[in-house]
Amino acid sequence: MADNKNPQLKIAEAESCHLELNRLYGVTKEKVEIVRIGNSSNDSKQLKTDVKEAQRLLRAMQVKIAHLKSLSKEVTSSESSTTQITNFLQIPSLNDRKTIEINVLSHEKQMSLLQKKLKEGAEDVGKDIAAEERRSLLLTKDGKLATGNIKIASHEERATRLQDLLARMSQQVDSGEQAMSSLVHSSSVLGQTHAEYDNQKGHIMVCIAPITMIIISFQTGNKLLSKYEQREFTEKILLVFFFLFYFGVVYYILQKRIFSWFKIF
């Protein structure tokens, strides 16, 4: 029975998908109109953001339409695969299938129309923004276009700007020359310092040599003292051993010769 109810569930899902597509169409249409009208600041970045948002909504519509189309095919296949019809089964009618197919075609036309409007609107607004940017480049300081006699003034202004630029470039060249001369002076001072170090290197080595010899002497003396201490310790151990051996021998002799004589009596 669950398989026989499946077509009705598919029809309900298709109806829900149709309603969601209507909602997406309204939201996408508003975003496309915003792109076509353009923003108040004529900002190219804002235009790109609006176009990306509209494209995202169109992709969401495309996914929903594909899902609705697959539901239409499933409803059709489920009706054709049913061989026995009873009074208890509810098989989708021809009107239901036609309604889903008509909705699919309607939503596809809506999506293609929105895509066309988005492309045309983005191109028109982009041209307007580019024209406005070019126009802003031609404006003078008082906000007027550089036309007629103003062009002569603009040429004079350009000559003045070029002179200022040349003056700044000459200043930069002078500062570069000064930096170069300071680098040359620093390198010469460094060379002199290195030469003085080479000259004083021999004196430094002569002064360091006695100190090195003293350090080596101390190290050698420490090594000799440690060796003498080890020898002294070894000699003490040998002396103790020999004394013990001597007393042992004496005790053994006394025990064998004298203590044994007392035992006789």
UniProtKB/TrEMBL annotation:
Point out the signal peptide segment.
none
Q: Which GO terms describe its cellular component?
A: endoplasmic reticulum membrane; SNARE complex
Q: Spell out the molecular function terms from Gene Ontology.
A: SNAP receptor activity
Which Pfam family is an annotated match for this chain, by its short name? Answer: Sec20
**Positions in coiled-coil regions:** 44-71
Residue spans crossing the bilayer = 204-225, 237-254
Where, subcellularly, is it found? Endoplasmic reticulum membrane
Q: Which family does it belong to?
A: Belongs to the SEC20 family.
Instruction: Give the chief site where it resides.
Output: endoplasmic reticulum
One biological process term from GO is: retrograde vesicle-mediated transport, Golgi to endoplasmic reticulum
Q: Record's InterPro entries?
A: Sec20, Sec20_C
Q: Could you tell me the membrane topology recorded for this protein?
A: Single-pass type IV membrane protein
Q: Write the protein's name.
A: Sec20 C-terminal domain-containing protein
Which residues does the UniProt record annotate as the domain Sec20 C-terminal?
Answer: 161-258
Q: Which UniProt keywords apply?
A: Coiled coil, Endoplasmic reticulum, ER-Golgi transport, Membrane, Transmembrane, Transmembrane helix, Transport
Q: Which organism is it from?
A: Caenorhabditis remanei (Caenorhabditis vulgaris)
* UniProt key word Phosphoprotein: no
Tell whether Transmembrane is among the UniProt keywords: yes
